[in-house]
Design a protein that fits this description.
Layout (H helix, E strand, L loop, with lengths): L2 H4 L3 H19 L1 H39 L18 H13 L1 H6 L2 H8 L10 H15 L1 H20 L11 H10 L1 H37 L5 H20 L2 H26 L2 H23 L8 H8 L1 H21 L6 H32 L5 H7 L4 H6 L5 H30 L9 H20 L2 H13 L2 H18 L1 H8 L1
Length: 506
């Protein structure tokens, strides 16, 4: 890289200006900021919902096809390269970065919400509504989100570790644009878009995490749900995740991710043993069966004739698809950074399929435990979730042994999920704004850490959860096209790479 390239901070400067303008607008005029975001949201859902569905379906098919092809045994790195991290730590980091607080936020609340508001014609509160609710939750948190991450992470890992490319999203387009094109205005525009999408996606998760931590503190200790409290939560966690990102992959991010996976596993196993164990097992198997049976049809189902289902799609499925796309650049970049030495087949299995099974297990344990209380008349959790979805897990815990203790640990888990998502994003945003440096400077990580927190707080001020959802959908719209082109670029590079041909033919 030339001295001129090293001094080119245009991506960093332009991205920073855009972020500061967004934060300033939201802070000075939250009402107009929220209204503008809402108008954009309605426009995208009305006109491009089909695009989200089509792209996400393709993202599921592409990596599976690549893994079972002749390219499956190809290593992401030189043929003699070894993985940088142990399998368990690698999985902990990619799972923590990929799911974040969303899994905890929606684990109880989403199935109960669909139970009371079934979109596919079941009677509200019925056994059929419960079955549909679990299938829908599995669908939203199954293969699709991880597929979005995979189609960015896989080509990035290939170009980084086999072609010595940078960690920039624009690097993926070298076969299409050439070296000069990647360094030119088009390449810079792609990187700026990646930064914007990342910032909006992570701000959504940080906002969700803040709301749920506040709900947990209120439920456990009577702490009020106010803007001041939410600001303090964001401020304290911002300090922690920024310091952990600055500490590096090994000391900071890896350590907290390991803790995160331990706490999540502990809570999941504890509730499985203390809750309705048999119902959970039945729900897991039934849910996977229902999910696989309806995967194709639900992946392509829209509302061409309008009606209530159209609104439901915008609030749930299309929101999720946009959210996963918004998360794809940073999660994909982070997963690529930690995946050197893995084969394509190992990569797809552990980034696409295994995490989906983990999500199924989580929803089966937590969602079924909430539905069991509701269906057996033990507690009316669903109505409380409808009023405030963030309280679902705490309401549910109070009706099981060791509920208070598990609720306290859950608040800690939400905080560690918050931290792992944010420190991963801080690392990646800093990488994007330093020409793809895989070990970005600490000063830039500190700046991005603070800006992420500021954007999350501004979005909360501008309309709470709705504003967070809208921001992620807006940011994701153009990035879906970039993800599809990245798949094409990877295939073009693989077919023309003589070294790849020799390796897969040996």
């Amino acid at each position: 890289m030339s001295a001129k390239e090293k001094k080119d901070n245009s991506v960093y400067v332009i991205s920073m200006v855009i972020m500061l303008l967004a934060v300033g607008w939201g802070f000075l005029s939250p009402a107009s900021f929220g209204a503008a975001a809402n108008n954009l949201f309605n426009f995208l859902i009305q006109n491009f919902g089909w695009g989200y569905m089509l792209f996400m379906t393709f993202f599921v098919i592409f990596p599976i096809g690549l893994a079972i092809s002749k390219y499956g045994k190809l290593k992401l790195g030189p043929a003699d390269s070894k993985p940088e991290f142990r399998d368990i730590s690698w999985f902990a980091m990619l799972f923590s970065a990929g799911m974040g607080v969303g899994l905890v936020f929606y684990g109880v609340g989403e199935p109960l919400f669909h139970f009371l508001n079934p979109p596919f014609g079941a009677e509200p509160g019925s056994v059929k509504a419960a079955t549909d609710a679990m299938r829908i939750s599995f669908f939203h948190w199954g293969l699709h989100p991880w597929a979005g991450y995979t189609v960015i992470a896989l080509p990035l890992a290939y170009f980084q570790f086999r072609k010595n490319g940078s960690g920039l999203i624009s690097t993926l387009f070298t076969p299409l644009l050439g070296e000069e094109g990647v360094r030119g205005p088009i390449g810079k525009a792609i990187d700026i878009l990646a930064i914007f999408a990342t910032a909006a996606g992570i701000a959504t998760s940080l906002g969700l995490g803040t709301l749920q931590i506040n709900s947990g503190l209120k439920y456990l200790f009577g702490v009020p749900q106010t803007v001041t409290v939410q600001f303090m939560i964001i401020f304290v966690l911002c300090l922690i995740y920024t310091v952990s990102a600055i500490s590096g992959l090994e000391k900071g991010i890896k350590a907290i991710s390991d803790l995160n996976l331990f706490l999540a596993t502990l809570l999941c196993v504890a509730l499985f043993l203390l809750g309705p164990t048999i119902s959970i097992l039945d729900s897991l198997l039934t849910g996977i069966g229902e999910y696989l049976s309806n995967l194709v049809s639900e992946s392509l189902t829209l509302a061409p004739y309008g009606g209530p289902f159209k609104k439901w799609l915008g609030s749930w499925t299309l929101f999720y698809w946009a959210w996963w796309i918004a998360w794809a650049p940073f999660v994909g970049s982070f997963i690529a950074r930690i995946s050197r030495g893995r084969t394509v087949r190992q990569f797809v299995t552990c980034v696409l399929i295994v995490p989906a099974l983990g999500s199924f297990t989580w929803f089966a344990v937590f969602g079924t435990s909430g539905l069991y209380l509701q269906l057996n008349g033990i507690a009316d959790i669903a109505s409380k979730v409808s009023a405030d979805i963030s309280t679902g897990v705490f309401e549910m815990y109070m009706h099981y042994p060791l509920g208070m203790a598990m609720s306290v640990v859950m608040v800690v888990l939400i905080s560690t999920f918050f931290i792992t998502s944010a420190n991963s994003a801080t690392f990646v945003l800093s990488m994007y704004s330093t020409q793809g440096d895989l070990n970005p400077p600490k000063s830039k990580m500190a700046i991005w850490g603070v800006l992420q927190a500021a954007l999350a707080f501004v979005l909360l001020m501008s309309g709470g959860l709705q504003a967070l959802q809208i921001a992620s959908i807006a940011a994701a719209a153009p990035f879906a096209v970039i993800m599809a082109l990245a798949c094409y670029s990877l295939m073009k590079a693989l077919k023309s790479d003589e070294e790849v041909s020799r390796e897969i033919n040996n």
